[in-house]
Amino acid sequence: MEAQVIAQWQEEMNRNLRRMMNFAELMNQKEPLVGQSPRQEIYRKGKARLYRYESTRRYRTPVLFVPNLGISRPYVFDLLPGGSFVEHMTREGFDFYLLDWGVFGPEDNSLTLEDCVVRILPRMARKVLEGSKADEVTLLGYCMGGPLSACFIATHPEIPVKNFINMAGPIDFSKAGHFALWLNPKYFDADKFVDTLGQIPAEMVKAGFKLLKPTMDLSTGLNLWWNLWNDSYLTGFRALNKWANEYVAFPGEFFRQWVKEFYQQNRMLRGELRLGGKAVRLRDIRCPVFVVGAKEDYIAPASCVKALIDAVGSTDKGYVELPGGHISLIAGRTAAVHCWPKVSGWLGPRS
């Protein structure tokens, strides 16, 4: 028994030594390489870029991935080899395209919701169809990209959308958690906010998300300490930590519309939203729809995301609620087990 205790003590001492050595190395290392999947820029519009990734292209229908605008950079979806949603989808044989909205400066403050839905997204979808020589396209929206994609599909019946996947994209903003409370018009004057600041700076975006879970930095630090001896954990931590501290500003006019039309008035779900003179009616979405919610999502709670199922006019539609939070749903260590196979498994037979 005594020998066993000594062995356990020695093992823990070795782990602590390894932790300290790895921590020293961590402080001296260069930034990790991220977004390594081979790709080609095929189109640009303003700050927006459209990328096509290399794949076997086993499936005929191309996939246009629409992430959030502002907030963070999209390389989180292609974080590291072996831990990349993009890599998974291309390995499965999908002709995969990513819309990168870009990094915004004060010169972009006039960018509006209409610009994104009525001008940029239609042009990107047409470029995907042109590049893939396909007749139809699948839209895959994540986070804010979910409702933006839904608005686009509902207002552009002339563009043939074969499938629509909404991953953690808020739809019923009355159920959007703390953000819905904080942005309530009783407490938040969006017009005064934008008129005063113009651009919503990256540091303010960061502060808003940090306030959602104030203990996150503490728990992250504790998890790092307990895993400093684990080289594979450190590799993933460094990459994710780089992304988690690289926030992106919001264009002022887009933020004004986003807050007022969605969070404060919930006009998309209520059928009262108009973009570019076109009514946004989710019931007009009739293609197959797949919705993915996360059980621990405090940014877009599952009930907020699931609302799309009852709102669309599709007959082929499904919903799955998976373990994880808003980010770990698609980019966490368990995403490869729980989420990615569900998405590719649903999409494959429909492509």
Short description:
This protein has 351 residues and is of the alpha/beta class.
Task: Describe this structure as you would to a colleague.
This protein has helices at residues 2-28, 85-91, 113-132, 145-155, 177-182, 190-197, 202-212, 216-226, 231-244, 252-264, 267-270, 302-311, 328-331, 335-338, 340-347; strands at residues 39-45, 48-53, 63-66, 71-72, 96-100, 137-142, 161-167, 247-248, 274-275, 278-279, 289-294, 317-322. The chain is α/β, with parallel strands linked by helices and 351 residues long. It has a single domain (33-350), classed as Rossmann fold, CATH 3.40.50.1820. It has an eight-stranded mixed sheet, sandwiched between helices. Strand 1 and strand 2 form a beta hairpin. Helix 3 packs across helix 4 (145-155) and helix 6 packs antiparallel against helix 10 (252-264). The radius of gyration is 21 Å and the shape is globular. The N and C termini lie far apart (61 Å). 43% of the residues are buried.
CATH topology, which one?
Answer: Rossmann fold
Name the CATH homologous superfamily: Alpha/Beta hydrolase fold, catalytic domain
**CA-based shape:** globular
Domain module tally: 1
Major β-sheet strand ordering: 1-2-5-3-6-7-11-12
What is the residue-mean pLDDT, rounded to a whole number? 84
- Specify the helix fraction band: 40-55%
Biggest sheet record = 8 strands, mixed
Task: Count helical runs.
Answer: 15
CATH architectural arrangement:
3-Layer(aba) Sandwich
End-to-end Cα distance, whole Å, is: 61 Å
Structural class: alpha/beta
pLDDT under 50 segments (min length 5)?
218-229
Strand content: 15-25%
Number of strands: 12
What integer value in Å does the Rg equal? 21 Å
The top level CATH class name? Alpha Beta
What string gives the helices and strands in order?
HEEEEHEHEHEHHHHHEHHEEEHEHHH
